[in-house]
Amino acid sequence: MRGAAHSPILKTSHLLGTEALSVDEIVGLLDLAEDYVALNRAAEKKTAVLKGCTLINLFFEASTRTQSSFELAGKRLGADVMNMSVNSSSVSKGETLLDTATTLNAMRPDILVVRHQDSGAAELLSRKLDCSVVNAGDGAHEHPTQALLDALTIRRHRGSFEGLTVAICGDIAHSRVARSNIHLLSKMGARVRLIAPKTLLPPEAGRFGVEIFTDMHRGLEGVDIVMMLRLQLERMTGAFVPSTREYFRFFGLDREKLAYAKPGALVMHPGPMNRGVEIDSVVADDIDVSLIHEQVEMGVAIRMAVLDALARGLPRGGRNTP
Amino acid sequence: MTRTAFLNARLIDPASGFDEPGALLVEDGRIADLGPRLFAGGKPDCPTVDCKGQVLSPGLIDMRVFTGEPGSEHRETLGSASEAAAAGGVTTMVVMPNTDPVIDAPSLVDFITRRAAATARVRVLPMAALTRGLAGETMTEIGLLMEAGAVAFGDGDHTIANARVMRRALSYASNFDALVVGHAEDPDLTTGTAMTESEFAMRLGVAAAPAIAETIIVERDIRLVELTGARYHLGQVSCRSALEVVIAAKARGLPITCAVSAHHLALNELDVGAYFTFRKVKPPLRSEADRAAMVEGVAEGAIDVIVSSHDPQAADTKRQTFGHAAFGAVGLETLLPVALGLYHDGRTTLAHALRTLTSAPADILGLKIGRLEKGAAADLALIDPDVPYILEPSDLHSRALNTPFEGRRFMGRALATFVSGECVYDRSKEVR
Fold this sequence. Notes:
The complex is a heterodimer of chains A (322) and B (432). With 322 residues, chain A is α/β, with parallel strands linked by helices. Chain A has helices spanning 23-41, 65-76, 88-92, 97-105, 121-128, 144-158, 176-187, 216-220, 244-251, 255-258, 281-284, 292-311, and strands at residues 54-59, 80-85, 111-116, 132-138, 165-169, 191-195, 211-213, 225-228, 266-268. In chain A, 38% of the residues lie in helices and 14% in strands. The model of chain B has no long low-confidence stretch (mean pLDDT 97). The interface between A and B is medium-sized, with 24 and 19 residues.
C-alpha cells in the first residue's frame, strides 16, 4: 500500500481549508485515506510513516472528537504526539496566539494541528511558523478535515459525486463545517443546497453557487444526502431562533421531513448532536440511513492521509533537522 | 524681523484655484507677499528657499488624528505624531479625545495644548469629547471646553447610541455654534463585528455588519440636526447610501459637512486579503462600489474633506487574529499621496485635491489657515506631486508602523514642511 509514497499529493505544506484545494488534491487524499481505512480495520494498525516526527495538537477550543481523532491518527502513523489545550484564560493573561505559537515553534514540531475560535487563526500561524499547519477548525471559516471525511464517507456509499444533490441544513452562518463542505462538494461536481432560517443564513450565501431554501420540505425534495449541522446552544434561545421546540418543528430532521428526500437518502452529522433540536433520535440512530458513526471512523483515516501527505513534503528525516 | 523668500515655486492656493509660478515672502511667520512678479526684479536680501518649480501649497490640515497621549504613549505621543505629520506635509492636526483619560474637561484640553507646545512640531488642535468619558450619557462642558481651546466636539470613534442624548448635545452645542463631529456606526449592529457584511466576509468567516449600520445613524443624526440647528460634521463617511443621505441633507440647506478617510478612498474590503489586520479599520473597508462612490463624492464636492484617521497601534494589538486585533491604521504620511492619487487618476484637479486637505477643513473649523494669502500664517507644504515611490513602513516617522499601504506604489509627497515659516521637515536631510 505504500507504493504511492513520496509522490506529492498536496501542493502546499499546509492544509488550511478546502477552498484552495484542487480536485486532484482532494482525490489524492481520499484515495490515500482508503488505504488507511483498511489499515485501521486490521489487527496491526501501526505504521512508521511519521516515525521521528513530532505532531502538536494545539486546541484553543474544547473538542473531544477532533482532538482524539488527530491524536490517534498521529500515533498510528508512528509520530510523537503532544496535546495542548489552551483555555482562553492564558489569552486574557496577555499572551497572544502568536506568543503561544512561537513558543511551540521553538520546540521544533513538524506538524501543528490547530483549532481556534477565531477565523484566520490557522492562516496566521502558517505565516509565522516553520512547520506544517493543519487547520482543525478556525472560527466560522473552515474545517477542512471534516469536509474531507464527509466526502470519503459519501464516496464509499455513492461511488462518485457527479449528479448527487447534498442538502446542508441548519446554522450555515456560523458554521465552518458548512463552508468547507460547500467548497469541496461543489468542486467535486455535487449540487449543494442550503436549508436554514434566514437568521442562520448569510445574506450572500447564494454567492457560493448553491441553491438556497428556507423550507425543509421543499429543500429536501429529491436530495441524496442530508447533512445536518449542530446548532450552538447560545444561538437557540431567542437570539437567532425563538426556541428549540420551534426550531425542531420547522428545521429539525425527523422521519416526516426525511420522507421528502430521495428514497434511500443518507443522513450525516458532524457531531456532537443535539437530539430533539436539529435531529430526531429515530433518524440519528437508524442504521439504514444514518452515517454518523461511519463519519467518525472515516475521520481517523482522513487525518492519517492528511498527515501522511504533509509529511511527504517534509525534508528527509524531518523538516527541522539541522 | 525675520524674513524668508520662497523662490521659483508653483504657487497653488486651493481656495481660490490660483495656480501659477511665482514667489512667496514670509515675514515673522506670516505670508507678507506672494505672486508671479514678486522678486522679478532680483534676488531678495534675505534667506531663500529654492522651490525648484515644485508645488508650494498651504500646509495640510488633518481633522482626524488619534494619538496615545495621554495614556498610551507607547503607541504614539503628540510629539511622534507631529513628526509623522510634518513628514506628510501636515501642519495642523486635530487630535481626537479618545485617550486615557478622555479629553472631556477644560484642564485636559489645556494639557494637550501645553504638551503640544512643548513637544510637537506642528499645530495641534484638540477635539473634546461630546459626552463625559465617551460614555454617551451626559454632555461635556461645551462652553468651558471651547474657552479652553477645543475646536470641535465628538466622541471619536464611538457612536452616541442614545438619540435623546444626541439630541440634547446637538441642541446645547448649537447655543455656542460649536461644531459637533459624529461617528456613524450603529453599535447594536456593529458590536463584535470586524468587516462589512459581504460575500468576502462570509467566505473568511469573519463576523460582519451591513454597511447600512452607518446609514442608519447618519439618517438619525441629520434628522436631529434639522431639529436642533447644530453645526454637524460627519467624521467619516464610507458607504454610498450614507453619502446619499448627506447629499440630500446638503440639498435641503442643512449645516452639514463630511469627511472621508484616505483608506476608504484607496482600499476596499478585498484588501483584507488573508486576514491582514493592518487593514482592519473603523468603519471597516467597504465594497468596491462604495469606494468608487467615495472617490466620486470627493470629485463632485459632496465630500468636503479627506482625513487620515491616523490611528497608531502597537504590534501586540495587531498581531492577533482578525476578530481580536485592534482597529486602526496610521495615515498621516499617506494622506497626501492618496489625495494626489485622485489627481493622477484624472478624478480631480490638483487644486481641488489640495482643497480637501487645506481650505475646506479650515472653513469647517473656522480657522484662518489653509490659504496662501497675505497676512495668513505661513504654514506651507512644498510638494513634488509626481515623484513615484514604493511605500516602505521603515520610512515612516510615526512611532507605530501599522500602515495599510505597505508596498503600495504612490506618486507625490511632501519635500518640506513649514509652520509659521519655520522648517519642520526637510526630506533632503533624511538619512536612510
